[in-house]
Amino acid sequence: MAEPWPTELRLDKDRRVLTVTFDDGKRFALPAELLRVLSPSAEVQGHSPEQRVTVPGKKSVGIVRVEPVGNYAVRIVFDDGHDTGLYVWAYLRELGENQDTRWQGYLDDLAAKGLAR
What we know:
Layout: E1 6-11, E2 17-22, E3 27-31, H1 32-37, H2 42-45, E4 63-69, E5 73-78, E6 86-88, H3 89-97, H4 99-113
């Protein structure tokens, strides 16, 4: 069975939510803050779990634009200048399906490190 494929990416008018719809009918509204702090970039993820960075202060981040990368991903350009993450379809799907858990993990990391959104 083929992996679900995105059929639509829609940025809301205030540029703070990217909605991704897949060909199996699933739709996920992904906040810009979540996308930014969980960017798949090496700058955020590092090259190992020990190098992963908890990114604070992105509560008001917005999306400037979403750029296609081949037929497998998008580059999201944020208004804080971050633009190095390539969001492959499977990662966008995973973020959507596990949004609550991933968000809570981020909030827990912030709290443990004494950082703020």
